[in-house]
Amino acid sequence: xxxxxxxxxxxxxxxxxxxxxxxxxxxxAEHCCRQLLNWLAQPQGAASLAxxxxxxxxxxxxxxxxxxxxxxAIDQYLVPVLGR
Length: 84
What we know:
By secondary structure, this protein is an all-alpha fold. 60% of the residues lie in helices and 0% in strands. The relative contact order is 0.20.
C-alpha cells in the first residue's frame, strides 16, 4: 500500500514562510491566503509577487494531494488574483 503525504494547512503555511512571507502560526489555509494577499499589497511584499504566482501554479498542479480546505482557500482567494 502506498501512502502520500497530503498538503495540509501547515504545509501551505510553511511554503509561504519559506518565501519570506510573514504568516501567523496555527492559522487555517484561508487565513494564510488572506495574509499572503495583504503582504503582496504592501511595498515590501511586491517583490514576492512572482514567487507567489509560481507557488500558486505549483500547488494547483498538486491538487490531487491537497486537502480540500486548502484547495478551496487557494481557489477562492489566490487563483483570482495570482493564478491566471
